[in-house]
User: Fold this.
Amino acid sequence: MDYFIIVATTVAGLYFHWWLYVRIKRWMDRDLALSLAGTDEQKKVFMLEQLANAQAQKINRRDLSKWLEAAAAGYPDR
Assistant:
């Protein structure tokens, strides 16, 4: 019974840390996209769409900032 408690708490702790790590990565990516958009609401929507496109294309995290900057530069200013 002692081993079960140790294993259960260890697995729960590892899962929680993994879940937290994934959430923080998503928040950082979303924050990056929104920071490149500035205060323009339409550009924020556009940048979130571009972030979804980057995730669908499986852009590496180290290349994501350059990719999003290029997408932001291509946004048609009105």
Summary: The mean pLDDT is 94. Helices lie at 2-37, 41-56, 61-73. The chain has one domain: 23-78. Residues 23-78 form one domain.
